[in-house]
Amino acid sequence: MALGLLLIRLVLGLTIAAHGTQKVFGWFGGYGPKGTGGFFDSIGIKPGVLMAVVAGLSEIVGGLLFAAGLWTPVAAALIIITMLVAIIKVHNKSYWSTSNGFEYNLLLIVAALGVALIGAGDYSLDALL
């Protein structure tokens, strides 16, 4: 079980953190704060640039903490809140992501919540504390 939790935490956490770097730094094909901020402004999340940085930092911090298994409930909360906002503001057209739906966001929410509820596992920093 501990190895399975480690795999889930690493893949989910590092993917979310990388997604955050797209917003904050423009890495991995992202648009950075200005580009993401412009999009945020267009969907009513204002001020766009500030909120892009806040969202990106939530993803980076939450993702890295989740991957490390440190303060896992806090890390999961950061991921869940960010994904809920994404569903409410962007991915709300249907269930399926191919139709701008929320299926992918829901998977991330449930995985983060599941790990938070059962614990990060033996191969985590939480286990050392």
Automatic annotation (TrEMBL):
Task: State where it is primarily located.
Answer: membrane
Q: Where are the transmembrane segments?
A: 60-90, 102-121
Give membrane topology per the record: Multi-pass membrane protein
Q: Which keywords describe this protein according to UniProt?
A: Cell membrane, Membrane, Transmembrane, Transmembrane helix
Keyword Transmembrane helix among record annotations: yes
Q: Where in the cell is it found?
A: Cell membrane
Output the Pfam families linked to this UniProt entry.
DoxX
Family listed: Belongs to the DoxX family.
Protein name, per record: DoxX family membrane protein
Q: Which organism is it from?
A: Paenibacillus anseongense
